[in-house]
């Protein structure tokens, strides 16, 4: 109960707050974390984009993961949601549920990871809450971004005939998790490591998302799995999506993995954790892709098109549909 | 790991989302929870106020508490932070960490509690995340409000000679917790129940907070305890606070409790969980208090004044300082 917490944990909370407080130093809206809330003056002509993700040790990351990596992934999966809406990140609020046993040095490394990514993405801590839990380390982050008024990228704007485009390479996150679980033992250590890194530290495609504003007809980040996420676009747009398996961009490591084990194809298509962007583009803007890839700082690949109908079909080759048993992961 | 979660919990997550989704139905900014984030168009001439609180079963509430009460308290403690800044609530994001054993009927009651308070406070769900935890039920809520540009109430504006004013009655929350812990057995059941209700369901003083904008020189909600929270105002304003114990407003139940046990005085002053507002008002605005109480829909009491110096002193009577061993609870 709160009463007990009051008496025992006070000094330690002050120490944790001392570790987290510097993360708000560069964010005037945080008011130095001295007040009951942050006060943000919205930029003129902008909408605010708000997203919140939660992670639990043993469920969404491994307790043995590096504290800094956990922190950065937490931040980056939220930034990826902002990227998918075409937003530029502004700041974030953080709720941390700390187990008793976690040493302050662990929390310091966690904060250092956040600090590193704050610099990388030009954002700062706005506020939050620190509590104690008898359960596993749990985290919740609310990220806030800005996008030109009424210009946020949505899932529901795709048109029939639009090209389906993805950034980067697909499947690395899911294969990286398998590698961490030692289920890709045949793969060279270098390739395993590449995939594991991709799993641990996604790259939110913020520049690409912002470049897509006013151009893409729909956009989503690939967190649930390529098929599930393109399925979201299809469903919200009232259309079907047809994906050509042979056009889905794979990293060298993923190619080798898939070539050595056919069963991994489905994992690549449904596994999630890629945090690349999938978006739709009118056919007549096909020539813009080179420019968009440059602005986004990431390769882009046309993998299919939107058609009348519903659902997602993956074509193994011309006229041959691939059977998929599970479409991936859906969440709130 | 995420992979396991994918395979086992998917259907159940869809059911939980089905329970929570209607909470976003009246909030256009939530986009029906169909997209990667919410998109909020800020009102003209307003600043946004952002706050985030976290709660854990067994730490911040009892596992046996009513699900609807837990939900409403979670929302209300955040709204109380908005009240302390003078903000009008706009909406909220919710992260829920559900233990395996929790039945869907429990989650439905939790959602019903949120729905009830959404109507009461004219707000809606903007988005969030639903995850599974092997630990206790954990919750994090981010509340968003609006206040006239640069007019948010702060803690740092009190002047020497300002009156210290509190709303409602003080100490009920802390005594309510004691009653729940069966430590106030001498008290009548009716009084115990009154105090327990005050602990379970705080009333965020939103109307009062908004009425104080442009009038109060500082404001805070009493969550950590009267002395600790007025201490925050004193510290941020670079002043000391002198409180007259005899002017601290007590409910009838609290009066009876304190009369029967002197030791409870300190609990009233340091216990927290009141979620009343404490604010400072220039002496020459003393006559506005009647009007402010009317606008705020709550009684107001002058309990002391700000003076040069530092710290918080509580006077038992004229010239006699009360010894206080612990000033209350501080958090991030």
From TrEMBL, chains A, B:
Further facts: Reaction mechanism of ThiL seems to utilize a direct, inline transfer of the gamma-phosphate of ATP to TMP rather than a phosphorylated enzyme intermediate.
Organism: Sneathiella litorea
SUPFAM superfamilies membership: PurM C-terminal domain-like, PurM N-terminal domain-like
Binding sites annotated in the UniProt record for Mg(2+) 1: 53, 129
Binding sites annotated in the UniProt record for substrate: 60, 273, 329
Gene: thiL
Lineage of producing organism: Bacteria, Pseudomonadati, Pseudomonadota, Alphaproteobacteria, Sneathiellales
Protein name: Thiamine-monophosphate kinase
Pathway linked to the protein: Cofactor biosynthesis; thiamine diphosphate biosynthesis; thiamine diphosphate from thiamine phosphate: step 1/1
GO biological process, one term: thiamine diphosphate biosynthetic process
The family this protein is said to belong to: Belongs to the thiamine-monophosphate kinase family.
Binding locations of ATP: 128-129, 155, 223
